[in-house]
Amino acid sequence: MDPRLPALAEQLLLIERELRLQGVWATQAPSPEALASTVPFAVDTLGFEEWLQWIFLPRMKEIIESNQNLPTASGILMMAELVYAQQPQYAGLLRALEQFDQLITHKLST
């Protein structure tokens, strides 16, 4: 088991918490067509918050729960910084995404 899994699971919960605190956590899923986008971050069909909630978080939870290989890179923070430029209320979400990126790109020693 990858030693990062517990920390990554915690980080996903923190990302969800920040989305809820910002009031951008949706109760209704986007359409199946919107979720089927093949464009990075589904920018053609979803807002960034929707992508985080409906695509990123479920995929990462599935990877962790089934002990699949983790991605070797993550650029979520870079995208979030573009989306939330000049919006200081998203600082907590940016920190949570930054920590996620760091956990993905740095293997912990066992």
Automatic annotation (TrEMBL):
User: One of this protein's Pfam families, by short name?
Assistant: DUF446
In which domain of life is the source organism classified? Bacteria
Q: Which GO terms describe its biological process?
A: single-species biofilm formation
Span of domain YqcC-like: 8-103
Q: Note the InterPro entries from the entry.
A: UCP006257, YqcC-like_dom, YqcC-like_sf
Under what name is this protein listed? Uncharacterized protein YqcC (DUF446 family)
**What species is given as this protein's source?**
Azomonas agilis
